[in-house]
C-alpha cells in the first residue's frame, strides 16, 4: 500500500491531495495540531489518520513520517502570521523527516518565484527572479530541495491561483465569487492573461506523478501545471455568471489604487500589492514536461469546475 504524510491537510491544496490519495487507496496520515477539531471538520467519506503534532516541531514531523514514502508539504503558519520567520524552518523539518524515512517531498509550487515582466511563459528552465518577499522565500525553499537531492527526492508542481473545494482563502473565493454572490470583484487587468488551477485537477495530477515508476521522475523534479488560462481576464467572470445562472451579475474592478495607497501601513494591502504584478502582466505555465510524463493531464472543463467551486 502506498503511504503518505500530509502537512496542511486541512488547507486547500493539502486537503485536495489528501482526498484524492484516499480515493485511490493510499494510506494517509495527517499531522495537525488538533485532531478532534480536524476530524469534526472533515467532510469527505474517507478520512486520513489524524496525528497530533506541529510542523514547527521536528520530532513531531519525523515521528509522523515513519514508514511513509511521500511527504506532502502543503502547510503554512497559522493565519499566515510570521510567514517570513516560520516557512523555512518548517521545510527544514520536512527535509529532516524525508531524509530519515527515505520519502519524496511534494511541494505545491507558486508562480511568485518569477518576474512576470520578464517571463510571460515559464517552464522548468526559466530563471527565477522573484519580485516580492514571499517569492524570494519560495525561491529559497526550492533551492533547499535542489541542494538536498539526490539524497532527498522532491517533486514541485507549480500552479496558478487556486479555486475549487477548500480554496476559501483564494482570489476566487474572496473576490470573484465571494459568498453571498451579489457581485463579481475582478482583480484581472483587461486583455491580460491569468493562470488558474482547479484544485481537484491539480491533486489528481500530483498523485498520477507519484504513481509513476520512481525512475521516471528526476531526483528534484519541477513541473508546471497549466490549469485554466484566462487569456483576456474575462473568461473566469463569464464562467461565474454562467455557473450562477445570473448573466446580469454586476462586475466591479478590484480597488488596486486604494490598496496601493494603504500598502505602506502594512497588513492586507501590503500583501496584496506584493502580488499585483501577476494581475498586471500575463504569465502562462508551459506543461510540456508534465504532458511528456503523463500523456493526459487532468483538466475539468471550466464551467464544470466553476459550478463545483460555487457549490463549495
From TrEMBL:
Superkingdom in the source lineage: Bacteria
Gene3D superfamilies, alphabetized: NAD(P)-binding Rossmann-like Domain
Gene Ontology MF annotations: aldehyde dehydrogenase (NAD+) activity
Matching InterPro entries: NAD(P)-bd_dom, NAD(P)-bd_dom_sf, NAD(P)-dependent_oxidoreduct
A Gene Ontology term for the protein's cellular component: cytoplasm
Pfam families assigned to the protein according to its UniProt record, in alphabetical order: NAD_binding_10
Domain named NAD(P)-binding: residues: 8-115
The protein, known as: Clustering-based subsystem
Amino acid at each position: 500500500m502506498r503511504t503518505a504524510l500530509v502537512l496542511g491537510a486541512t488547507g486547500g491544496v493539502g486537503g485536495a491531495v489528501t482526498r484524492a490519495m484516499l480515493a485511490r487507496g493510499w494510506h494517509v496520515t495527517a499531522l495537525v495540531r488538533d485532531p478532534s477539531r480536524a476530524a469534526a471538520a472533515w467532510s469527505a467519506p474517507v478520512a486520513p489518520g489524524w496525528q497530533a503534532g506541529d510542523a514547527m516541531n521536528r520530532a513531531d514531523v519525523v515521528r509522523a513520517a515513519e514508514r511513509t514514502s511521500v511527504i506532502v508539504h502543503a502547510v503554512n503558519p497559522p493565519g499566515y502570521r510570521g510567514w517570513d520567520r516560520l516557512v523555512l524552518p518548517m521545510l527544514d523539518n520536512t527535509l529532516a523527516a524525508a531524509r530519515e524515512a527515505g520519502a519524496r517531498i511534494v511541494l505545491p509550487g507558486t508562480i511568485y518565484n518569477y518576474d512576470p515582466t520578464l517571463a510571460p511563459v515559464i517552464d522548468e528552465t526559466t530563471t527565477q527572479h522573484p519580485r516580492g518577499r514571499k517569492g524570494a522565500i519560495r525561491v529559497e525553499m526550492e533551492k533547499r530541495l535542489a541542494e538536498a537531492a539526490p539524497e532527498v527526492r522532491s517533486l514541485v508542481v507549480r500552479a496558478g491561483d487556486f479555486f475549487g473545494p477548500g480554496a476559501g482563502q483564494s482570489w476566487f473565493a474572496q473576490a470573484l465569487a465571494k459568498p453571498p454572490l451579489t457581485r463579481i470583484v475582478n482583480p484581472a487587468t483587461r486583455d491580460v492573461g491569468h493562470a488558474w488551477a482547479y484544485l481537484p485537477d491539480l491533486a489528481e495530477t500530483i498523485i498520477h506523478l507519484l504513481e509513476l515508476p520512481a525512475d521516471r521522475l528526476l531526483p528534484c523534479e519541477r513541473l508546471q501545471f497549466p490549469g485554466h488560462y484566462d487569456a483576456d481576464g474575462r473568461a473566469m467572470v463569464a464562467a461565474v455568471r454562467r455557473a450562477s445562472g445570473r448573466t446580469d451579475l454586476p462586475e466591479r474592478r478590484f480597488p488596486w489604487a486604494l490598496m496601493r495607497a494603504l500598502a505602506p501601513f502594512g497588513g492586507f494591502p501590503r500583501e496584496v500589492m506584493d502580488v499585483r504584478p501577476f494581475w498586471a502582466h500575463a504569465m502562462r505555465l508551459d506543461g510540456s514536461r508534465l504532458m511528456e510524463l503523463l500523456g493526459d493531464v487532468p483538466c475539468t472543463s471550466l464551467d464544470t469546475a466553476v459550478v463545483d467551486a460555487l457549490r463549495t
